[in-house]
From TrEMBL:
It comes from the Bacteria. Pathway: Steroid hormone biosynthesis; dafachronic acid biosynthesis; Hormone biosynthesis. It catalyses: cholesterol + NADH + O2 + H(+) = 7-dehydrocholesterol + NAD(+) + 2 H2O; cholesterol + NADPH + O2 + H(+) = 7-dehydrocholesterol + NADP(+) + 2 H2O. It holds the Pfam family Rieske. This is cholesterol 7-desaturase. The keyword Membrane applies.
Length: 337
């Protein structure tokens, strides 16, 4: 990070709200139950339109493709139909599988040779996990560079059916997630009694944070997934956050909240319930406010300072930004990010 440029610090007119490209990573698309077998739907995410479809039958695979047919450019999401696991263009019935390979040109005696060699329709790698559809986005269409982690709370029947929430925020995903290492704001914006003592470890595509000596453990996994575990004397509640860029300046925030199925009526069940309420900012008589009530006013209106003036009590903001640059391939040296 460069030395503070005082002129830049004082000239806010040149600052942008969101100078960031769409980052590379795994991103939430929708809940699996919302995509029926054989369905074709146009969706907007990652700053463009995509066609989301699912193969026929119970085991139908989900696919997410660029809308425009490689043949003559018809929009696959307007009139396109699912045949088996493939999407079939309405114009001349070429078929493409979820990996983008052309599987059928019904009237060609010889398929264009390229069809045998490589996918010709841009599709994103898609996996379904935790009852959700996830896509891998990379601006240069490179293959996934890491795997989604295991989240036992979303994989086992020992945990309650998650409560989910969805919010739209007018800023980029990098700005939203910067909150996770901005420890000072927890006191001044959220009303925590003290700035929590915290440690942060940046490791490849992940960040591990520990706040208040184990009370909150955070695991950021790329730009599109973060898991926070709140531990109150051994009772743990979990918040899984999966934000997805909508446009470059708008983010859809999605969250699931869950905890172990403590027997009903026990103290543990009450504590866990309270922790979940606390996370969403709904707990009564709380000393601190959840993100829903206070963070939006900042996110929706701020500008991004690439060269901020920081002080010794701030969290590892610059390390975080350096870490985040790995998700902007080709922009690692861009001074505006
Ligand atoms: S434009 Fe899609 S099959 Fe011709
Ligand atoms: Fe916050």
């Amino acid at each position: 990070m460069s030395v503070i440029d005082l002129k830049l610090l004082q000239e806010t007119k040149t600052l942008e709200r969101c100078p960031f490209p769409i980052p590379a990573g795994w991103f939430f698309v929708d809940y699996s139950k919302n995509l029926a077998p054989g369905e074709v739907r146009n969706v907007f995410l990652l700053d463009q339109e995509w066609v989301l479809f699912r193969g026929e039958g119970e085991e139908g695979k989900a696919g997410l493709s660029d809308p425009f047919c490689p043949h003559l450019g018809a929009h696959l999401g307007h009139g396109g139909k699912v045949v088996g696991d493939n999407i079939r263009c309405t114009f001349h019935h070429w078929q493409f599988n979820p990996e983008g390979w052309c599987k059928d040109v019904p009237y060609a005696k010889i398929m264009p040779p390229v069809c045998k060699k490589q996918p010709i329709l841009r599709t994103l790698p898609v996996i379904e996990k935790w009852g959700m559809i996830w896509c891998w986005y990379h601006p240069q269409a490179e293959a996934p560079q890491w795997e989604l982690p295991s989240i036992p709370e979303l994989e086992s029947d020992d945990y309650i059916e998650p409560r989910t929430g969805h919010w739209e925020v007018n800023t980029a995903v990098q700005e939203v997630a910067e909150n996770g290492v901005d420890f000072a704001h927890l006191k001044f914006l959220h009303g925590e009694p003290e700035i929590p003592p915290a440690t942060t470890e940046f490791k490849g595509h992940e960040i591990f944070t520990d706040m208040k000596n184990g009370y909150i453990k955070g695991h950021q996994c790329g730009p599109g997934l973060a898991i926070f575990r709140f531990d109150h004397e051994g009772v743990v509640a979990t918040m899984v956050s999966y934000s997805v860029p909508y446009t470059r300046e708008q983010t859809k925030m999605n969250m699931s909240f869950t905890h172990f199925k403590y027997p009903e009526g026990t103290k543990e069940a009450m504590v866990a319930q309270h922790l979940v309420n606390h996370m969403v900012g709904e707990a009564d008589g709380e000393e601190s406010a959840g993100f829903e009530s206070v963070d939006f006013i900042v996110w929706n209106n701020k500008k991004y300072r690439p060269n901020p003036l920081l002080c010794d009590g701030d969290g590892p903001i610059l390390q975080y930004r350096k870490w985040f640059k790995q998700f902007y391939p080709g922009n690692e040296e861009n001074p505006n990010l």
